[in-house]
Amino acid sequence: MPDERVDDGRLGLARAATAKTATIAVIPARFGSKRLPGKPLIDLAGRPMVERVYRRTCCAKSIQRTIVATDDERIQRAMLPIGEVFMTGVEHESGSDRVAEVAREIDCDIVVNVQGDLPLVDPEMIDALVNALRNDDGVGIATAAVPIRSSNEFEDPAVVKVVFDLRGHALYFSREPIPHERDAPGAITGAWHHVGLYAYRRDTLLDFAVLAPTPLERKEKLEQLRALENGIGIAVVACAGAPPLAVDTQKDVDTVRQALSRLDPDE
Fold it and tell me: Which domains, and CATH codes, for the chain?
């Protein structure tokens, strides 16, 4: 991993002004969490979670640089021996705001926001988002979705659902079960579970970050609706399989640890 240090503790950013990188991945990592304080540094089979996310993201073939974005020195210290770290401001209300701060400092084409609580994120899913953005000039953002597998998943408000048009462009995201099949209420055929990975064109991300929250965003508490309400197209990449395991509770931690025990130690 690159290890170019600058005085303020950021890695690799000294070359940002002179060298353009086509695609970067940024992992926003916030220490504070109501349910799991210090979540990025939770030990998962001998490595902190943020390191797990970082290493898997680095495996994506489309990514030239992977950067952890944080405002906490504890996360910075944990990641400095591993790879690039960018110390952001403390005022950010969302991960996308933190990612946008990094993107302002780096000349690139595409920025992938990889949530810091996805220690088993699939590198191929990241590549699929980048390829979708490169191949579709009609959108500024790409995200992922997997099929809904059960009625419980369909009804769960913690699971964000997405519907998209025949081109694969998002029509709407909701915590409610959509689409509703009138002749078979509760049917899950054709229902999609949104996965919170995003690839942005850099200019789109910087524009998005300064937009005010929108009415539908406030109702659903879903930031991606701000993009749709402002006419920013979102490509939805339909992927097979289950969504990547996200860590929000202690139960999730135990589940991920069990999953890691079945993998190669370096994965």
Answer: 1-117 (3.90.550.10), 122-243 (3.90.550.10)
